[in-house]
């Protein structure tokens, strides 16, 4: 009888939690693809992407950094045993301009769309999952 009561009370203590945190808007991939090195001006970049997170002076040249972070957290509470996981991914773009504010080149990593809710024993780096999420982001531009 005591075992059944203990097992039943343990089930009553079981719960789960999900959380999500976003810092900045995901970077618009379609806007990035429209930028043309040698032609796009810094003002056009700011009009398309908004204010940069950081501006770095490189002599008479400059570099703009844009970033966004998405974090998804999940937890399973089983009485005294708890399991949790957090998956954080980031979009980051560096754009380099000459002394006349013309785009020279840029580099980008776009992965905020790959964040997943998962528990510690799940793999959040499966190529099949990424392919589906990458295709969805390519359709939407974000």
Notes on the protein architecture:
The structure is a single chain. The model has no long low-confidence stretch (mean pLDDT about 90). The chain has one domain (about 25-140). Helices cover about 30% and strands about 40% of the residues. With about 140 residues, it is an alpha+beta fold. The chain contains 4 helices and 5 strands.
Going by helix content, strand content and strand pairing, the class is alpha+beta
> How helix-rich are the residues, as a percent range?
25-40%
* Beta-strand proportion: 35-45%
Average predicted local confidence, pLDDT: 89
* Order of secondary-structure elements: HEHHEEEEH
Q: Please tally the helical runs, counting DSSP H or I stretches of 4 or more residues.
A: 4
Contiguous uncertain segments of 5+ residues:
none
What is the terminal separation in angstroms? 56 Å
Shape: elongated
Main sheet, how many strands, which sense, barrel? 5 strands, antiparallel
Number of strands: 5
How many domains would you count in the coordinates?
1
Integer-rounded radius of gyration: 22 Å
Task: Please give a quick description of this structure.
This protein is α+β, with helices and mostly antiparallel strands.
List the helices and strands and how they pair.
Elements: H1 2-13, E1 15-23, H2 29-34, H3 42-49, E2 54-58, E3 61-78, E4 81-97, E5 103-109, H4 127-140
Antiparallel strand pairs: 1-3, 2-3, 3-4, 4-5
Feature tags:
elongated
